[in-house]
Specification:
Oligomer: single chain
Number of domains: 2
CATH architecture of the largest domain: Alpha-Beta Complex
CATH superfamily of the largest domain: 2-enoyl-CoA Hydratase, Chain A, domain 1
CATH class of the largest domain: Alpha Beta
Order of helices and strands: EEHEHEEHEEHHHEHHHH
Largest sheet: 6 strands, mixed
Radius of gyration: 19 Å
Length: 262
């Protein structure tokens, strides 16, 4: 069973509610990725996906910043760990397809790969003083961390290209209206808001959340008939679960259900 003790660059805490908080911890570098942090994040994502104790994942950064992407000044320039047949950014699928709800709690700057990581999460809670900065093209770097897939699906083709072309701060109110940000609040409220939502989701039927997420993700690139098949498969899995039986009992007994994720 994972202990979630990786390195100083990533602090991880799993509470009794099943909420796993992973804090990128390089505040002097605004939590920019070095090799140690990259390796720890991928290990954490794989462990969290397989650990039945984990019901929700919250990603955040230390020291008033989220993450500024790659640290170009670090001595540890190891790239994201990937197998011989995997693309460089295969780790993005570990986060995008995490079979648990994922929440990005964003204070300060989220730039480049840090912004990309936030967009891979299901939900984003963002400080009204934060900076969302798609900096890639200003440095003549190709956009990465799957942002060319996530951003247009969140905000639309033209708006996504405009923001990527300009490589300037994304206006937060526009980002909220476009659906890029789910909740905009004062910086002091970011983590309390994210944790309140995480604990609410932790009480939900975990397996059914994973099935729903899988259906939505697959449906983004499928025909309606394919989605009907995916939903039918998911419904069969749901009906066979213990949580389905608990949901029926709770309805009949007029009480709140006690879901276990099985």
């Amino acid at each position: 069973m994972p202990t979630y003790d990786y390195c100083d660059e990533l602090k991880v805490n799993l509470d009794d509610d099943g909420v796993l908080v992973a804090t990128m911890n390089r505040p002097a570098r605004k939590n920019a990725f070095n090799g140690a942090l990259r390796y720890a994040i991928r290990d954490m994502l794989r462990d969290a996906a397989a650990d039945a104790r984990v019901r929700v994942l919250v990603l955040t950064g230390a020291g008033g910043a989220f993450c500024t992407g790659a640290d170009l000044a670090t001595d540890d320039q190891r790239a994201w760990p990937a197998g011989p047949s995997q693309p460089l950014f295969a780790w993005c699928l570990d986060l995008l397809e995490m079979p648990k709800p994922t929440i990005a709690a964003i204070e300060g700057v989220a730039a480049g790969g840090g912004l990309g990581m936030a967009l891979l999460c299901d939900i984003r809670v963002c400080a009204d003083s934060a900076r969302l900065l798609p900096i890639w093209l200003k440095r003549a770097i190709h956009p990465d961390d799957l942002v060319t897939w996530t951003l247009p699906r969140l905000v639309g083709y033209s708006r996504a290209l405009t923001w990527l072309y300009l490589a300037e701060d994304i206006p937060l109110l526009e980002a909220e209206r476009a659906g890029l940000i789910n909740k905009l609040c004062p910086a002091a409220d970011v983590m309390p808001t994210a944790l309140k939502l995480a604990r609410k989701l932790a009480k939900a039927p975990t397996m059914h959340l994973a099935l729903t997420k899988q259906s939505v993700l697959r449906g983004l690139s499928r025909e309606p008939w394919d989605v009907a098949m995916i939903e039918s498969w998911g419904q069969q899995k749901a009906f066979a679960s213990e949580d389905f039986q608990e949901g029926i009992r709770a309805f009949q007994q007029k009480r709140e259900p006690d879901f276990t994720g099985r």
